[in-house]
């Protein structure tokens, strides 16, 4: 028997995750976006990532129609945007500096509080429970900052490395 939704959220709320904002445009060119922590790299060749989108998300119809988005991994200073894009506010882009992506069909590229960004084109959609998994090819990327924001048990926190000069390897390798 599956655990309750409450237990499930408690388990995953205990796991510190990066905080991201996904942005896109609707058919009329209006910017849309939401805060997301269900993000993962899928493949380096070709470069693919995935984001999980709640079926109730007001941004989902715009994502479906545009087929493109920008994933912004937030840096220190991005906490206010994380809260704004997690809210039910209608005008999330008022007062937020952005420019349209030349790669991701005009999706907003946020200019402040961003650790890294990936400009993406959706290549596959998978229905999974109460979410859609969007798998996207990364056609543009940038890494403008180096201090990430994490989400842990309902709180945004800034991660500070005790040994900034020690870097981990780039990632796991295939044997």
From TrEMBL:
Residue ranges spanning the membrane: these are none
Taxonomy, superkingdom: Bacteria
Descriptive protein name = Flavin reductase family protein
Pfam families named among the record's database cross-references = Flavin_Reduct (PF01613)
**Is Acetylation there in the keyword field?**
no
Task: Name the source organism.
Answer: Streptomyces boncukensis
Residue ranges occupied by any Flavin reductase like domain in the UniProt entry = 12-158
Molecular function as annotated in GO? FMN binding; riboflavin reductase (NADPH) activity
Q: Which SMART domains does the protein's record reference?
A: Flavin_Reduct
Gene3D superfamilies with a match to the protein in the record: Electron Transport, Fmn-binding Protein, Chain A
